[in-house]
Amino acid sequence: MIYFLKRLKYRCIWSWEGTVATWREEHSFRSWVWANLISGLAAMLLPLETSERALILALGILVLAAELLNTGLENAVDRISKEQHPLAKKAKDAGSAGVAVTAIAAGVAWGVILIGLL
Q1: Is 82 exposed, middle or buried (0-12, 13-18, 19+ CB in 10 A)?
Q2: Which of 67, 68, 65, 87 is nearest to 77 (CA)?
Q3: Among 15-24, 26-35, 36-45, 77-86, where is mean pLDDT lowest?
Q4: Residues spanned by the domain of 75
Q5: How many domains does the structure of the chain reveal?
Q6: DSSP-assigned letter for residue 38
Q7: For residue 81, is it left (φ>0), alpha (ψ between -120 and 50) or beta?
Q8: Does the residue 52 lie in any domain?
Q9: Active site residue: 17, 52, 67, 83, which one?
Q10: Predicted structure pTM score
Q11: 67 part of the active site
């Protein structure tokens, strides 16, 4: 049990360090954080069901998770080589597409929920 708690402590530290580094270095991550704060505030102020609020908040967090993973992928590719290569471009573009798909999912959820309010 002590080993588990020690590893958990380190995982929390490393995760926090990754989040802070991404906040400092990635404009897009900061933009998504602000978008999520606005989205979350709107979800709390509108007359939504609890499940609708949970969906909006969870999808926003998934967008942030996708952006963190994309940043990690981009950093790993850049670590290997700064030289432009078609496979590096494909990897980075796929990471960016992953962020876009999660953002579209959040947008679709918002759209369906807002139409339901009409």
Answers
A1: exposed
A2: 87
A3: 77-86
A4: 27-117
A5: 1
A6: H
A7: beta
A8: yes
A9: 67
A10: 0.92
A11: yes
